[in-house]
Amino acid sequence: MKDFFLTKYDLSPSSLESVMGRVLGKKIDYADLYLEYTASEAMSLEEGTVKKVSKNISQGAGVRAVAAEKTGYAYSDDITLENLLVSAKTARYIAQEGESSHVPSVKTNASPHDLYPVQTAPIDVPIEDKMRLLESVDQVARACDPRIKKVMASYASEVKRVFIVNSKGEMSQDTLPLMRLNVTCIAEDGGRREVGSFGGGGRHEFGFFLEDHRFEYYAKEAARQAIINLSAIDSPAGPMEVVLGPGWPGILLHEAIGHGLEADFNRKGTSAFSGRLGTRVASELCTIIDDGTIAGRRGSLNCDDEGVPTSRTVLIENGILKGYLFDRQNAALMKMPLTGNGRRESYAHSPMPRMTNTFMLAGKDDPSDIIRSVKRGLYAVSFGGGQVDITSGKFVFSANEAYLIEDGKITKPVKGATLIGNGPDILTKVTMVGNDLALDSGVGTCGKEGQSVPVGVGLPTIKISEITVGGTA
Amino acid sequence: MPFSLDQANDLLKEAKDKGATDGDIFVLQGESFEGTVRLREIEKVSDARGKSLTLRLFFGKRHAITSTSDFTQKSLHALLDDTCRLAQISPEDPCAGLPEATLCEKSIPCYDLSDDAVRNISIDEKIDMARRCEQAALSADPRISNSEGGSIGNSHTGILYAATNGFSGSYRTSSSSLSVSPIASEDGVMQRDYWYSSRRKYSDLESAESVGAKAAARTIRRLKARKVATQNVPVVFDPEMAASLLSCLGSAINGYALYKQASFLMDHLGEKIASDGITIVDDPTLSDGLGTKPFDGEGLPATKKTIVEKGVLKSYLLDTYSGRKLNLPSTGNASRGAGSSPSVGVSNFHLNPGTDSPEAIIASVQSGLYVTELIGFGVNTVTGDYSQGAVGIWIADGALAYPVEEITIAGNLKEMLLNIERVGNDVCRFTRISAPTLKISQMTVAGSERA
C-alpha cells in the first residue's frame, strides 16, 4: 500500500513537490493534491435471483489552491505528472499574479487512528459468497410471512485508496473499506401493498454480515416493517408530542442541528445557527457529539479528505452550543482549531465541512417511562430521508414506521407521517432523554451541494413536547 | 485522443473471441467548468475532465457489467477478462439481452446539441456573468443581506454506444447554466431562495440581470413567513413544483417499479389516472431540449410519445429489459450511466399547457396554499402516499396574501392526480421535466392546531 500511487502512476516525492510548487504563489495560502483509486462492486437480487453484478474502477486526481475565501480546483482522471501540472495551473487561476514558490520537502503525516484494520477487504472475497448472502436474505425474508410477496436486496462494497500531499509538505494516505447490505420487502394483503426496508454495514470485513445473525436480522426487520404497515392507519395531522425511538431516528440531529453547525455556513452567516456559539440552543438534557473515530463505523475515517486526523467534537453540551465542524479553509478563516471534518465525495470534488457520526449522549430516563408519559402522540422508530433549509432552519423527515401513543400506550401503526420543525428550537423542546443510546445500523448517506458521503447517526429514545406531524387524518 | 467507435468495436470483437455471445460498450467523455462569485468576489473556480467506459457482456442468458475511468490498453484488457469471469458465474436471467438488431435506430438523426461557441468565451467573461447575476440580486432590495453566490457553469459531453447487434453511434451534447441564491433578512430572520437558467447553449441563457432579479423577488416574498392552522384546502403548485409532481408520476410508470410491483400505477395502462385536463408527452426530438437525444441508451429510436392523454395512461416508460418483464416492447426510454445496467429515464417530459392563466387559477381559490418549494422524501411510490414539507404563499379571497412555512402538504398521488382541477397556460419548454401551474382541489395542510 505504502507506495501504491507513486508506483502505479510513476510519481515521486520530488515530482509531487513540483506540482505543489506550480500551484503555490504569493497569493496562495494553501494547496493540496488528492489522488484516489476506488474499486467497487455491486449486485442486487429480485425475484429470488441475483442480477446486475457489476464491478467498477474509478481513479483520478484533484488539485486545489486556496487563497483566503477563494478556491481553485481542477481534476482529471488521467493521473500523469503532465496532467497534474496542467490541473495545478488551472487551480491557481484564482491568484492571477505571483511567482511559484518553494515547498517544504514532503514528509508523511501519520494518523493516530487505525479504525478499520481489515485482513481481507470485502471486495476481495469471492463474488459467489456475496451471491449466496443475497439468496439467504431472500429466503429468510420470505419465510417470515406468506404475505411477503416481493423481496429485493442489494449488496455493495468498495475499497478506496487515497493519497493527499499539501503545500505544508504533509503527506498522508489511507485505505478505506466500506460495505452495505439493504433489504426491501413488499407485503400484500387483500389488494393492499406496503413496503418495509432495513439494512446495515460499515467499514468491516465481509464476515460482519454473517456474525450475530446480522443479515437475518436485516431481512426480518424489512419483512416485519412491511407487515406492520399493512395494518397502518393514516397519520394524524397537526402539532403533537412525539417520541423518537433509539438509533436511526438520530437523523433528526443530522438534519435539524448538524448541517447548521458546519463551519462554511456559519462563516458566511447563512446558517440559522450563525453567531450563536455559547448560547442555549437545546434543553439542558441534550449533549450532541460528532465523532469520526468510532471503529468500523460507516461515518468514521482515520483522517479526513484533507489529511487531518478525525476527532470527537462536542457540538452542544447540556444545551449550550459549543462548536462547529471545520475543514482547513474555514478553520483558517475563522481562526479555530481543526476538527477533521473536511470531506469530499471523490477526486472530482473539493472538500467542505461535513459530519461523520453524529449522536446525542444517553440520558437517565427509562424508555418505557417516556412512552407512559404521553397522553396522545406519535412514536416514530424508523425514517426514510430528511432534508433541511440551512438558512431558515426548517427541516423535514419522513417516518416509515410509526405508531400512535394513546394514554401512555403504543397502539395503532400509522403511515405517511412527515415531521417538520425548526432546527434552532426543536431541541429546546426535548423534555425526556432515554438511557438507551444506539447508533444506526450503517446505511446513512448525506448529500450537500451535490456531494454524497457516508455518515452515521445515533440517538437514545427522546420525547419532544411538540412537533408538527404532516399526515392526512 | 477521444475513445472511438472503432476502438469500442475492436474491444467487443475481442470479447466475442473470448466466448461472449453479446455485449455493449457505453462511453462518456466530458469536460466542465464552474465558477462562483460570492459577495462580488470570486469564491470558486473549478475545471474538470472525466471519462468512463462501461462494458456489459452476455454469455447466453448470463451477464455482468463493469466500468473504468482508466483507458490504458492494459486496464481495458484486465476489465475485459474480469467481465467475462463475472458474467460466467452470474445466474441466468431469461429476460437479459440486447434488443433485437431489427429494432435499432437505422438512420441516426442529427440534432444540434453541442455548443462550440462557448469555447471562445474566456473564464473572465463567464465569471463576469456570474458577478452581474449576483449583483442584480444584491441590488434589487435593501433586505437582500447576504448570498450563497452566483454561479456559472458549462459542460461538454461526448456519448458513444456500440453493441454486438450491429448498432453503433455517438453524439456530443453541451449545457450551460447560470444561477444565484440570495439571502434576505428582516427582523433577524433569514430566508433563502434561488433562480436559474439552464440551456444547451450559453448564448441562449436568460440574461444575468433577469435571473438575479427573479431570484431576489423569490427570496423577498418569503420574508415574514408564518405557520398556518392544520386544514383541508385547495393547493396550487407553481410550475417548478408541478414539475416535481410530474416526476413522481414518471417514477410510478417506470418499467422497473412496475414489474417489481412497486408502483401504485401497476396494471393501469389504458385507465384513467388523472383528470381530463392532463396530457403528458415524452419528446426526445425537441430542438434545444435538455433531454433531446438521437437514440436511447440501447441504440433504439428515441421518438415522441404521448404518455397520458386527457387523463388516460397511454404508455409506460420502458427499456428492453423491463419491457420483456411486462411483455411489452421498449418505449425507447433506456438511459445509461457510468458503471450501471440500463435503467429507465424520461427525455423531455412535458405536461401540456391548459387554458387558465396562473392568476385566474389563484383567483379561483377562496382559501388555500400556493406552493413554491417542497422538501423531504415523503413520497411512497408503492402506495402513492405523499407528505412533503412545504413553503409557499397563502391564498386568501383569490389573491396571494402572505408567505407560509414549516407546514406539510399530504394526500395520496392516486387521488391528487385525479383531483387536478385546473391546468395553467404557463409552461416553460426549456426544462427537461416541465409542467404549468396546477391546482389540486383538496389536500391536507398540516401546521399549527386546527382552527
CATH superfamily of the largest domain in chain B: PmbA/TldD superfamily
Please give the CATH class of the largest domain in chain B: Alpha Beta
Helix content of chain A: 10-25%
Structural class of chain A: alpha+beta
Instruction: Give the tally of β-strands of chain B.
Output: 20
Alpha carbon gap, first and last residue of chain B: 68 Å
Biggest beta sheet summary of chain B = 7 strands, antiparallel
CATH topology of the largest domain in chain B: PmbA/TldD fold
> Which assembly state applies to the chains in this document?
heterodimer
Strand content of chain B: 35-45%
Largest interface: chains, residues each: A-B, 77 and 77 residues
Enumerate how many helices of chain A there are, as a single number.
10
- Rg over C-alpha atoms of chain A, rounded to the nearest angstrom: 24 Å
Biggest β-sheet of chain A: count, sense, barrel? 7 strands, mixed
Q: What count of domains describes the coordinates of chain A?
A: 3
**Whole-number mean pLDDT of chain B:** 96
Helix fraction of chain B?
A: 10-25%
Q: SSE string of chain B, helix = H, strand = E?
A: HEEEHHEEEEHEHHEEEHEEEHEEEHEEE
Q: Domains counted in the coordinates of chain B: how many?
A: 2
Distance between the termini of chain A: 58 Å
Question: What this model shows, in words?
Answer:
The complex is a heterodimer of chains A (473) and B (451). Chain A has 473 residues and is α+β, with helices and mostly antiparallel strands. Chain A has three domains: 4-108, PmbA/TldD superfamily (PmbA/TldD fold); 122-159 and 176-231, PmbA/TldD superfamily (PmbA/TldD fold), CATH 3.30.2290; 238-470, no CATH class. Chain A has helices at residues 4-8, 13-23, 81-91, 127-144, 214-230, 251-258, 263-267, 328-334, 367-372, 423-426, and strands at 30-46, 49-67, 70-76, 107-108, 148-166, 170-189, 192-202, 233-234, 238-244, 288-291, 312-317, 320-321, 342-343, 352-353, 357-360, 376-388, 394-406, 409-415, 418-422, 430-433, 438-439, 445-448, 451-454, 456-459, 462-470. In chain A, strands 1, 2, 3, 4, 5, 6 and 7 form a seven-stranded mixed β-sheet that branches. In chain A, helix 2 runs parallel beside helix 3 (81-91) and helix 4 (127-144) runs parallel beside helix 5. The model of chain A has no long low-confidence stretch (mean pLDDT 94). Chain B is an alpha+beta fold and 451 residues long. Chain B has two domains: 5-220, PmbA/TldD fold (2-Layer Sandwich); 225-266 and 277-292 and 346-451, no CATH class. In chain B, strands 1, 2, 3, 4, 5, 6 and 7 form a seven-stranded antiparallel β-sheet that branches. In chain B, strands 8-15-16-17-20 form a five-stranded mixed barrel. In chain B, helix 3 runs parallel beside helix 4 (208-220). Chain B is globular. The interface between A and B is large, with 77 and 77 residues. Strand 2 of chain A pairs parallel with strand 3 (62-68) of chain B, so a sheet runs across the interface.
